[in-house]
């Protein structure tokens, strides 16, 4: 057996993140590990990659016991990890990035011709096409991930851990990634895939480990399990199918007229955006990420000035207003990056749950915080959204990724504003929590508020939105009513409608 993690246990204070977890990996395996947020998947991988030490348990590689004190120990034994946040030097070339780690030690980094030839050979051997001379910052996200994979292969990894690799990819890039994994497996590499996307598990993995509460619940061949069985094992209950009642729409809550933004070099330009969100509806902005959605949301939330256009929010003109003024006028915002904008990682859960409401009744009087109310509010959100946490006073950074996301979503929905802008609200979230969050968004809509949902997950857009705008290259490229459009048509518009769509998108 190539890898055997045997009875691994790890606790953080009162939290048992891994409880006697055992997994086995053979050469050429694609092993998926799934489980709800906080189940202990990342902890197990951090232990395998030398980022954390287990309290108990043993790792065997080729039947020999190994101990990893740091990632370089794991890498030296052929274990590599493709992290969610890429570790690349943006201003350097693809070739320099791929060879950097190994060659700086030997002083060979400056031999550009040799490096390019090496990377070319490597990319051909593994069928991972790249231009060795391209600058990383000019490469789309999917290609940057491919560079990360090549970097790991260049260091002779034979076990590759993918940590939620598709979260940042477009649908076509996901297809490429799945093919890449299959190729690597055929060429004898072994893969561990951590993901919440059960369809990808079924498409690519040979075996799947389900974890819950730090323990292994089941290990199955994917040919012998199903989406329903996996999700039941993950969350311990059946996930109901949701039926939405037709919307009862009222007056406009958010009206954007003629908004244009001439971007900095390297960013998207927004062209004459017109959109409307009314009471009682969920309106989606579908699109492949990187087509101007982030820029538009930054303009609407006061984080970015624009060149022309008017924005009305709940009857107030908030054109070019500050973020604080816009929030006051009735906007809540779940940002797409939970750490950069959504939370303060070093602050406590109670503090993070309060952000934006600190000056309000009942949390504050004459500038003094009522800590009892603040803590009760946080405890309430944590319970309602099932945030897996040990204490109100632990740091936000110590929550698992999905649980941090749940707390941000909870905080913004709890503000009960007339308008909520929700950007990728369920990224990194398990299916049980996703179902709950979708329910909360629908409830908000049914109460007569408006939700603007920005999502690169087509299924999320199709399931939730009463109306859908498609964004492509900085323009709103189409508008559809629920039920009058299918995924294929939306997908086509996401690639530029019938103007630019490549043939592959049609099939
Ligand atoms: N450094 C830490 N300090 C305290 N608790 C931690 C720390 N790291 C992880 N935990 C806790 O350990 C548990 C397992 O977390 P882990 O990140 O392994 O879950 P996960 O399955 O990867 O979740 P997700 O799907 O949300 O990424 C969680 O309850 C988490 O809060």
Fraction of helical residues: 25-40%
Side-by-side strand order of the widest sheet? 6-7-8-3-9-10
Q: How many DSSP E strands?
A: 22
Instruction: For the record, give the distance between the C-alpha atoms at the N and C termini, rounded to a whole number.
Output: 41 Å
The CATH architecture of the largest domain comes to 3-Layer(aba) Sandwich
Write down the overall geometry. globular
CATH overall fold name of the largest domain: Rossmann fold
InterPro entries: AAA+_ATPase, ABC_carbohydrate_import_ATPase, ABC_transporter-like_ATP-bd, ABC_transporter-like_CS, P-loop_NTPase
Protein name: ABC transporter ATP-binding protein
Pfam families: ABC_tran
Domain ABC transporter: 3-238, 254-498
Walkthrough of the structure:
This protein is an alpha/beta fold. The protein folds into three domains: 3-235, Rossmann fold; 240-330 and 417-507, Rossmann fold (3-Layer(aba) Sandwich); 343-416, no CATH class. The protein has helices spanning 41-48, 71-76, 94-106, 112-125, 141-154, 171-186, 198-204, 227-235, 293-300, 323-328, 349-354, 371-384, 401-414, 431-446, 458-464, 487-494, 497-500, 503-506, and strands spanning 3-12, 15-25, 30-35, 56-61, 64-66, 79-82, 159-163, 190-194, 207-212, 215-221, 252-261, 270-278, 282-286, 308-313, 316-317, 331-334, 364-365, 368-369, 419-423, 450-455, 467-472, 475-481. The strands form five sheets. The protein has a six-stranded mixed beta sheet with strand order 6-7-8-3-9-10, with helices on both faces. A six-stranded mixed beta sheet has the order 16-19-20-13-21-22. A hairpin with a 2-residue loop joins strand 4 and strand 5 (64-66). Helix 3 crosses helix 4, helix 3 (94-106) packs parallel to helix 5 and helix 13 (401-414) packs parallel to helix 14. It is globular, with a radius of gyration of 24 Å. Mean pLDDT is 89; it is low at 500-507. Bound molecules: adenosine-5'-triphosphate. Pfam families: ABC_tran. One of its GO terms (molecular function) is ATP binding.
């Amino acid at each position: 057996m190539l890898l055997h993690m045997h009875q691994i246990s790890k606790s953080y204070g009162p939290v048992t993140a891994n409880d006697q977890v055992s997994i086995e990996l053979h050469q050429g395996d694609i092993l998926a590990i799934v489980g709800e947020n906080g189940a202990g998947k990342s902890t197990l991988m951090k232990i395998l990659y030398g980022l954390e030490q287990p309290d108990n348990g043993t790792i065997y590689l080729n039947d020999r016991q190994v101990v990893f004190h740091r990632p370089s120990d794991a890498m030296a034994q052929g274990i590599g990890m493709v992290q969610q946040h890429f570790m690349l030097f943006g201003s350097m070339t693809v070739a320099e990035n791929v060879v950097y780690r190994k060659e700086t030690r030997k002083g060979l980094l400056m031999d550009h011709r040799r490096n390019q030839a090496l990377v070319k050979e490597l990319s051909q051997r593994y069928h991972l096409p790249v231009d060795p001379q391209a600058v990383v910052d000019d490469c789309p996200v999917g290609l940057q991930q491919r560079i990360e994979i090549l970097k790991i292969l260049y260091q002779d990894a034979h076990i590759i851990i993918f940590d939620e690799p598709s979260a940042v990819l477009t649908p076509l890039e996901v297809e490429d990634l799945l093919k890449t994994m299959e190729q690597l497996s055929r060429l004898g590499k072994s893969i561990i895939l951590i993901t919440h996307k059960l369809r990808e598990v079924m498409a690519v993995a040979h075996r799947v480990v389900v974890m819950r509460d730090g323990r292994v619940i089941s290990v199955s061949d994917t040919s012998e399990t199903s989406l329903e069985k996996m999700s039941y094992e993950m969350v311990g209950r059946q996930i109901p199918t949701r039926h939405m009642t037709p919307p009862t729409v009222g007056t406009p809550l958010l009206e954007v007229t003629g908004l244009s933004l001439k971007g900095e070099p390297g960013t998207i330009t927004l062209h004459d955006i017109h959109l409307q969100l009314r009471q009682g509806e969920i309106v989606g902005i579908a699109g492949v990420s990187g087509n101007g959605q982030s820029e538009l949301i930054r303009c609407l939330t006061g984080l970015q000035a624009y060149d022309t256009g008017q924005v009305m929010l709940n009857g107030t003109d908030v054109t070019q207003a500050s973020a604080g003024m816009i929030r006051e006028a009735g906007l809540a915002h779940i940002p797409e990056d939970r750490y950069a904008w959504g939370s303060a990682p070093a602050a406590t859960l109670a503090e993070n749950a309060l952000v934006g409401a600190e000056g309000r009744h009942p949390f504050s009087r004459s500038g003094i915080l009522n800590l009892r109310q603040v803590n009760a509010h946080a405890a309430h959100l944590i319970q309602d959204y099932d945030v897996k946490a040990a204490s109100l006073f632990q740091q936000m950074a110590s929550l698992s990724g999905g649980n941090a996301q749940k707390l941000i979503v909870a905080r913004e929905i709890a503000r009960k504003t007339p308008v909520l802008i929700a950007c990728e609200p369920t990224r990194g979230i398990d299916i049980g929590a996703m179902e709950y969050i979708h329910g909360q968004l629908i409830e908000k809509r049914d109460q007569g508020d408006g939700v603007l949902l920005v999502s690169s997950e087509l299924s999320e857009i199709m399931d939730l939105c009463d109306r859908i705008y498609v964004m492509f290259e900085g323009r709103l490229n189409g508008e559809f009513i629920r039920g009058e459009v299918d995924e294929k048509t939306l997908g086509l518009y996401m690639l530029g409608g019938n103007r630019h769509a490549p043939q592959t998108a049609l099939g």
